[in-house]
Specification:
The chain has 237 residues and is an alpha/beta fold. It is 34% helix and 21% strand. The protein is built from nine helices and ten strands. Strands 2-1-3-4-5-8 form a six-stranded mixed β-sheet, sandwiched between helices. A two-stranded antiparallel ribbon has the order 6-7. A two-stranded antiparallel ribbon has the order 9-10.
Length: 237
């Protein structure tokens, strides 16, 4: 079985290869500019360049995103395009990030992840029938990120079980563990900020005919695609 790890940064690729003995001899490759990668990688670059793509026998099996940035503002949303791209292509996603962390500087304080991350991941799973997992990078009692190697325990277990099961998700108990943790964190964040249960005020969902009427059907000049007209609802942001 040929295992390759395509990465945006060699340091992250090395970190990932050390998560499981199954990856110890994987071929580590840097993701190149669009048009310069194998077709099976190119299809995952439509919106953005992911951090890590695990490939087995030329079949992408997992896209991994890793960030130590505090879970606030654009830090969460800026990676969504590449993860949506992955699930559209039938590739599972693991997002390794803090659920809470101390922000330093002028506006220092503890930042918590937006609960909409978890509801969005659940919806992505529902639509595409592929695991979309948020894995917590833990912090200590002062809300500083743990960086002694123990922070990787859960994602190590997940990767090890995925490899042992040949990516048969039904045989990976760690997926249920991660989902339970996501559900728990969603409930905590919604209790703290109930508005997270619904889309933000910048989002409007309308019947597609109503949306077209509201803009005077400005798309008409170029021809509204049939695929667009077939959508019962349209979301604007």
């Amino acid at each position: 079985m040929g295992i390759e790890i395509y990465c945006d940064d060699l340091q992250e690729g090395t970190w990932f290869s050390n998560l499981s003995p199954h990856l110890a001899h994987a071929h580590l490759l840097t993701i190149r500019g669009r048009g310069s990668n194998p077709v099976f990688v190119e299809k995952l670059l439509r919106y953005d360049r992911p951090d890590i793509v695990l490939v087995v026998d030329e079949n992408p099996k997992l896209v991994v995103e890793k960030t130590s940035e505090v879970p606030t503002g654009h830090n969460i949303g800026q990676r969504f395009g590449r993860m949506v791209n992955a699930v559209e292509e039938g590739v599972a996603v693991a997002y390794f990030l803090p659920f809470k962390a101390m922000k330093h500087g002028q506006y220092a304080g503890v930042c918590y992840v937006n609960a909409r991350l978890f509801s969005a991941f659940a919806k992505m799973e529902e639509i595409h029938a592929i695991p979309v997992l948020a894995i917590e990078w833990p912090c200590d009692h002062r809300f500083e990120l743990v960086r002694d190697g123990t922070e990787d325990r859960l994602i190590q277990t997940l990767i090890e079980q995925l490899c042992q099961a040949d990516f048969d998700y039904r045989r990976v108990p760690a997926i249920s563990t991660v989902r339970d943790r996501m559900t728990e964190e969603y409930a905590k964040r919604v209790r703290q900020t109930p508005s997270y249960q619904t889309p933000p005020p910048t989002v409007t969902i309308a019947r597609t005919p109503d949306f077209l009427n509201s803009i005077g059907n400005k798309m008409e000049a170029q021809g509204t695609p049939e695929s667009f007209l077939a959508r019962p609802e349209t979301l604007t942001y």
